[in-house]
Amino acid sequence: MVNKTTYYVFEILEKAAAAKTRAEKITLLKNHSNNWAMKDVLRGTFDDAVQWNLPDGKPPYEPAEDRSHPSNLSQHNKKFAYFIPNGPGAKMPAVKREKIFLDILETVHPKDAELLVGMINKKMPIKGITKKLVQEAFPDLILR
Questions:
Q1: Domain segments of the chain: what residues?
Q2: Burial 45-77 (b: 16+ CB within 10 A, else e)
Q3: Residues 6 or more apart from 74 whose CB is under 8 A from it?
Q4: pLDDT(1) > 50
C-alpha cells in the first residue's frame, strides 16, 4: 500500500465531508493543519473579511485533464494575494489579474479549480464543509 503524504485540497475536504461524525470531520481537518492552500481556500470561502477583486460567477476556463494537471494549489495559494482589493494585484489591469486566476484554474486538478471558483463566489462546492465546522477546527482562521 502506498502511503500518500501530499493530498489535493479537494481530497482532504471530501474525506472530511464523508466522515460519519462531526468530531471525525474536525480531526481530519486538523490533521492537515499544515496545508496552507487548504486553509487559504477555507478562509477565502467563509471569511466575510476576505473579498475578491475578481468577477462573480464561473469564469470561462478550460479545466485541466483529470490525470494530467501540471500543478497543485500548494504551488499557487500565495498568488491569492493578487486577487484581493489592496493586494499586490490591485493596481494591475483587471484583465491581467483575471488571466493569472484563469491560469491557476487551468493548471490545477479540476476539482481544486471548482473549489477556487466556489471561493471567489463565497460558496463551498463540497457539501458537509461549513463555516461553523471550519471555525471549530481552526478557531483563529476566520475573522468574521
A1: 9-137
A2: bbbeebebbbeeeebebebbeeeebeebbbebb
A3: 6, 35, 36, 37
A4: no
Q: How far apart are CA 83 and CA 5, in angstroms?
A: 29
Q: Which of 29, 91, 33, 71 has the alpha carbon at shortest distance from 116?
A: 71
Burial of 135: CB neighbours in 10 Å, binned 0-12, 13-18, 19+: middle
- pTM for this predicted structure: 0.92
The three cell numbers of residue 26 are 474536525
Q: Residue 78 — left, alpha, or beta (φ > 0 → left; ψ -120 to 50 → alpha)? A: alpha
Q: Using CA atoms, how far apart are residues 64 and 70, in angstroms rounded to an integer?
A: 8
Q: How do residues 39-90 score in pLDDT, each as one tens digit?
A: 999 999 999 999 999 999 999 999 988 777 778 899 999 999 999 999 999 9
